[in-house]
Amino acid sequence: MKQQLTLTRRNLLASLALGGTGLAVAQGSSSPPGDARAPALPQPGAALALTDVTLMDGSVWRASGAAGQVLVVYWWASWCPFCAVQSPHIEKLWRKERSRGLQVLALSIDRTPEAAAGYMRQKGYTFPAGMLTPDVAKVLPKPKGLPVVVVRGRAGKVVFAEAGEMFPEDIEGLAKFL
């Protein structure tokens, strides 16, 4: 299978850190162990289906409420060190841009809702977060990697997808899709 080569700042830095030339790194070539059956990142332009999700606070995030809105879907875990670095920036984006219509739906892959909810309380995160239950995963399966960010544009199609820790300025830059 032929892999698409993409030069991004993250891939360039990863290649250089591994002693490479920095010319190109295969997109999606690295994923955590045990992630072999995970789907690939959705491609820009692909439709992104949604489903209702019960949030950690017991309320329900309604898929119908995302119609015509920009939505950041964020797969994360409380035990993930890269998520620990990225989540404060997702929170900052959420707080700054929600008044402009940005929606966030974070999906925890923690083993228990208590672990995820406790972590969110401890860190003071307010972005909408639920568990990646089997029913939710039927519609929104976690792509390879962690953390994963997928942005669904106003037309219901993917406009951005990234697996792995993002730079703070790149997360802030997601506001350009509003």
Can you give keywords for this protein?
single chain, Glutaredoxin, five-stranded mixed sheet, 27% helix, disordered N terminus
Your description of this structure?
- The chain is an alpha/beta fold.
- The protein folds into two domains: 1-30, no CATH class; 32-177, Glutaredoxin (3-Layer(aba) Sandwich).
- The chain has five helices and nine strands; from the N terminus they run βαββββαβαβαββα.
- It has helices at residues 9-17, 81-97, 113-123, 134-139, 168-172, and strands at 5-6, 25-26, 53-54, 60-61, 71-76, 103-108, 129-131, 148-152, 158-163.
- A five-stranded mixed beta sheet has the order 7-6-5-8-9, with helices on one face. The protein has a two-stranded antiparallel sheet with strand order 1-2. Strands 3-4 form a two-stranded antiparallel sheet.
- The longest helix has 17 residues, at 81-97.
- The chain is globular.
- It starts with a strand and ends in a 6-residue tail after the last helix.
